[in-house]
């Protein structure tokens, strides 16, 4: 039976597209469920994350059976910021025997991108998509991070992609001396005139604008960055508000001006799908973290103080392990911050690229 490439458009077809994730990962003892509430509005074009972006989903089928999927994205906001003609391929998932299907799927997605002016396609970093894991295929990662099968790398390489950028993931095992170190880091920043304010204590009318502007400024030179709008930030906050994101996320101020931001979602392992007999380790119950400091305040311990505040709050809630987050291989300032906080490299990730004009 041949392979057909389809473009899902109806709500039912897009729902099937999203839920294919559950089919691919059904083999895992512990996994995150398909993010239907997040991805379906994006694919349907009814979401703040679609502003300034064109998105086209693709499915590969054999008969009635889906064997691979991906969505192609032209992100005008990214291309304006970086002055590039780049396309993104997100939400890629495939079954183990999908080598030919992946090639056909990626050819169709890349052709769609090329027709809209793209000179290359990036897979693994764009529009809430994260890099592909390359060495830890068993552990439950923090929510939002990938937990892809090992064969994805072969499928992507066979479909014409090259390794573009490496990332590392950091984890911390909580120890008394680290708790003391974090308390000292927080106190040093306060003595230097910096205020570390949890979002719950930032006035509501200032919370989203100040956090969004600080995030945009601190990440403006970060590889692969696309700024988030106030509506997008608001959507993320609302999604994670029940988990306590306003207690663990902060804005750092100096002379009443925001100079840093920290986005931390406490661990959500209760949402994970775990097979009978599989017990999650403490080292798999991890937070999500994003951190940035404006250039004017870098090198003054603000990064350490913000992370310390969140970590101390997570410890108070009973955490045994913490995540520092994924960091670019060559982002040594952030990697040194991780080390100072007591973190070690626990996994490696990669972003792929397919060039069109070569």
Write the layout of secondary structure elements.
Elements: E1 3-6, H1 11-24, E2 30-31, H2 36-44, E3 53-62, E4 65-75, H3 76-82, E5 86-94, H4 99-115, E6 120-123, E7 132-133, H5 152-158, E8 162-173, H6 176-191, E9 194-198, H7 204-218, H8 230-240, H9 245-248, E10 250-254, E11 257-265, E12 273-274, E13 288-293, H10 302-316, E14 321-328, H11 332-340, E15 344-355
Parallel strand pairs: 5-6
Antiparallel strand pairs: 1-3, 2-12, 3-4, 4-5, 6-15, 7-15, 8-14, 8-15, 9-10, 10-11, 11-13
The CATH architecture of the largest domain would be 3-Layer(aba) Sandwich
Helix content: 25-40%
Low-confidence stretches: none
**Strand content of the residues, in percent?**
25-35%
Q: What is Rg?
A: 21 Å
Domain tally: 2
CATH topology of the largest domain: Aminopeptidase
CATH class category label of the largest domain:
Alpha Beta
Q: What characterizes the major β-sheet?
A: 9 strands, mixed
SS elements, strand count: 15
Mean pLDDT across residues: 97
CATH superfamily of the largest domain: Gcn5-related N-acetyltransferase (GNAT)
| Secondary-structure element series | EHEHEEHEHEEHEHEHHHEEEEHEHE
Secondary structure class reads alpha+beta
Shape descriptor: globular
Distance between the termini: 33 Å
Q: What count of helical segments does DSSP give?
A: 11
Describe the structure.
- The protein has 358 residues and is of the alpha+beta class.
- It folds into 2 domains: 3-129, Aminopeptidase (3-Layer(aba) Sandwich), CATH 3.40.630.30; 170-348, 3-Layer(aba) Sandwich (Aminopeptidase), CATH 3.40.630.30.
- 35% of the residues lie in helices and 28% in strands.
- It has helices at 11-24, 36-44, 76-82, 99-115, 152-158, 176-191, 204-218, 230-240, 245-248, 302-316, 332-340, and strands at residues 3-6, 30-31, 53-62, 65-75, 86-94, 120-123, 132-133, 162-173, 194-198, 250-254, 257-265, 273-274, 288-293, 321-328, 344-355.
- Strands 1, 3, 4, 5, 6, 7, 8, 14 and 15 form a 9-stranded mixed beta sheet that branches. The protein has a 4-stranded antiparallel beta sheet with strand order 9-10-11-13.
């Amino acid at each position: 039976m041949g392979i057909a490439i389809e473009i899902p458009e109806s709500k039912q077809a897009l729902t099937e597209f999203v839920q294919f994730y559950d089919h691919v990962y059904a083999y895992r003892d512990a996994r995150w469920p398909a993010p239907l509430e997040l991805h379906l509005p994006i694919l349907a074009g009814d979401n703040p994350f679609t502003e300034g972006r064109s998105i086209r989903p693709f499915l590969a089928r054999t008969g009635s059976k889906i064997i691979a999927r991906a969505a192609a994205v032209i992100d005008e906001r990214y291309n304006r910021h970086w002055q590039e003609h780049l396309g993104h391929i997100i939400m890629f998932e495939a079954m183990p025997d999908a080598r030919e299907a992946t090639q056909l799927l990626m050819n169709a997605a890349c052709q769609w991108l090329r027709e809209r002016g793209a000179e290359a396609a990036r897979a693994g970093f764009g529009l809430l998509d994260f890099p592909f894991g390359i060495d830890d295929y068993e552990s439950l990662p923090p929510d939002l991070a990938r937990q892809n099968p090992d064969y994805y790398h072969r499928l992507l390489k066979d479909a014409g992609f090259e390794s573009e950028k490496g990332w590392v993931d950091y984890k911390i095992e909580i120890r008394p001396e680290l708790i003391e170190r974090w308390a000292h880091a927080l106190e040093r920043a306060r003595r230097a005139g910096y205020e570390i304010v949890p979002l719950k204590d930032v006035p509501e009318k200032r919370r989203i604008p100040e956090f969004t502007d600080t995030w945009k400024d601190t990440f403006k030179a970060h590889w692969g960055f696309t700024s988030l709008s106030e509506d997008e930030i608001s959507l993320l906050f609302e999604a994670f508000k029940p988990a306590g994101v306003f207690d663990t996320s902060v804005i750092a101020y100096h002379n009443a001006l925001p100079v840093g931001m920290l986005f931390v979602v406490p661990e959500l392992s209760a949402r994970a799908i775990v097979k009978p007999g599989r017990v999650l380790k403490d080292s798999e119950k991890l937070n999500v973290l994003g951190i940035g400091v404006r250039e004017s305040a870098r090198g003054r311990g603000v990064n350490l103080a913000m992370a310390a505040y969140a970590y101390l709050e997570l410890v108070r809630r009973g955490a045994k392990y913490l995540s520092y987050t994924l960091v670019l291989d060559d982002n040594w300032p952030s990697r040194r911050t991780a080390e100072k906080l007591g973190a070690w490299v626990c996994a490696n990730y990669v972003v792929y690229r397919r060039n069109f004009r070569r």
